UniProtKB/TrEMBL annotation:
It comes from the Bacteria. This is DNA repair protein RecO. Involved in DNA repair and RecF pathway recombination. Pfam families: RecO_C, RecO_N. The gene is recO. Belongs to the RecO family. Residues 1-75 form the DNA replication/recombination mediator RecO N-terminal domain. Keywords: DNA damage, DNA recombination, DNA repair. SUPFAM superfamilies: ArfGap/RecO-like zinc finger, Nucleic acid-binding proteins.
Length: 256
């Protein structure tokens, strides 16, 4: 039993003296665990970095076995971000969410395509990372897991313009007019989640993070009595610092 598929490295851990246990998200085969012989060697160490895009080859005698994996590097995403803390936080959060939220061996081709697109944009503009694009990706993750939000029209008035909030109970958008006296009980909906051309600002990013984080926690992780991944919490901390400081990515990197 064997296959070859593009894959994103989500997590790795030592195994024995020189090998690795890896967890990857593949395009057609979903999340897979595998053993990498010699994965900790000097020759292979750089390849098996979390966030790297590889062409993976998996082999096992039976389909339900752990199997062995080899790979060829396609894009060393992690190495592009070493000097950019916020970009690294975004990549780490995405990998952790996939690793902990997705069931093994269930295909998620749309999610894989969206993540590779985000990683490509992240590699190109690491100094000013596409934060809004990342949170639009988190909404795709929610939809792939069966908890998609309805953000194309107001749940109260049915209008498509002026959407400003989301109901924490139903996950449906609400306009400013439709919110009325209930707006204090609703979650703010930043425009950067609705418009692919809207890059947002630190305040909007925080609103987006709170919105998607609320539904990820309630719908995905709380069901298994687990908190959001630590990497997602670290991303929130980085966004709070950015919002409080009002600095550009380059300014932040110069201080680090």
């Amino acid at each position: 039993m064997e296959w070859e598929d593009p894959a994103i490295i989500l997590r790795r851990s030592p195994h024995g003296e020189s090998s690795l246990l890896v967890r990857v998200l593949t395009r057609r085969h979903g999340v897979h665990h595998a053993l990498v012989k010699g994965g900790r060697s000097r020759r292979q160490a750089a390849l098996w970095q979390e966030g790297n895009l590889v062409m993976a080859q998996w082999k096992a005698r039976l389909p339900d076995q752990l199997g062995y994996m080899t790979a060829e590097l396609v894009r060393p995403t992690a190495s592009f971000l070493l000097d950019h803390p916020l970009a690294l936080s975004l990549l780490s959060s995405a990998c952790s969410l996939c690793s902990e939220a997705l069931a093994e061996r269930e295909p998620h081709e749309l999610l894989f395509a969206a993540l590779t697109h985000f990683m490509g944009a992240l590699s190109i503009s690491a100094a000013e990372p596409p934060v809004a694009l990342y949170f639009r990706w988190e909404l795709i993750l929610l939809r792939e897991l069966g908890y998609g939000l309805t953000l194309d029209h107001c749940a109260v008035t049915n209008v498509r313009d002026g959407l400003a909030y989301v109901s924490p109970r139903t996950g449906r958008a609400v306009s400013e007019e439709g919110a009325g006296e209930w707006k204090d009980r609703l979650l703010p909906l930043p425009s950067c989640l609705l418009d692919d051309d809207d890059e947002g600002d630190p305040a909007a990013w925080l609103s987006a993070a709170r919105l998607s984080g609320y539904f990820l926690q309630r719908a995905v992780f709380a069901a298994h009595h687990r908190p959001l991944p630590a990497a997602r919490d670290r991303l929130m901390t980085a966004l709070y610092r950015r919002a409080e400081g009002g600095t550009s990515g380059q300014d932040e990197e110069e201080r680090v």
